[in-house]
Amino acid sequence: MKKPNLLISECLCGVHCRYDGKNNRIDELECIQSLYNIIPVCPEILGGLSTPRPPAERVGQLVINNIGVDVTKEFVRGALRTLTIAQDNNCHRALLKAKSPSCGCGEIYDGTFSGILTTGNGVTTDLLLENHIEVFTEKNIDSLIPKKSDD
């Protein structure tokens, strides 16, 4: 049986592409790889940002970094490139980094750089959802892993 393709944040795969040069490798990576062909992406890198880079947070439709620079253009470019990759690879689902201004789903940081969360999505998540791609984060990764029956 052919495994479905799954778009996944590169940082969740252990790639050091976070704003601080670190990663967010998930413990479930091997299980996910056994169930899906993973298609790793980092929308922020695809948008032209470097690693490391100043942290950024979404403020309405804008994305501003902690030194006051508007990086919305890079985030939108990365989201568009990520969508193209998802569509080119027939990805109907994505596993993205929670709370991120690119990849967050359901809640993101509020733009004050104070660690406060607010309801919302990252730029890439919004675009993927608008294009009927289901988005998960490491917070609800269990929804991507079939339950084993207790027969």
Structure write-up:
The protein is an alpha/beta fold and 151 residues long. Helices cover 24% and strands 21% of the residues. It is built from 4 helices and 8 strands. The protein has helices spanning 29-35, 43-46, 72-88, 123-130; strands at 5-9, 37-41, 56-59, 62-65, 93-96, 107-109, 117-119, 134-137. It has a 4-stranded parallel beta sheet with strand order 2-1-5-8, with helices on both faces. Strand 1, helix 1 and strand 2 (37-41) form a beta-alpha-beta unit. Helix 3 (72-88) runs parallel beside helix 4 (123-130). The chain is globular. The mean pLDDT is 95.
- Give the structural class: alpha/beta
Strand order of the largest sheet: 2-1-5-8
Topology order in helix (H) and strand (E) letters? EHEHEEHEEEHE
Mean pLDDT across the residues is 95
What distance lies between the first and last C-alpha atoms, to the nearest angstrom?
23 Å
CA-based shape = globular
Contiguous helical run count = 4
- Please indicate the percent range of residues in DSSP E strands (runs of 2 or more): 15-25%
> How would a textbook summarize the main sheet?
4 strands, parallel
Which residues sit in consecutive blocks of at least 5 with pLDDT less than 50?
Answer: none
Number of strands: 8
Name the helicity range. Answer: 10-25%
Rg (CA only): 15 Å
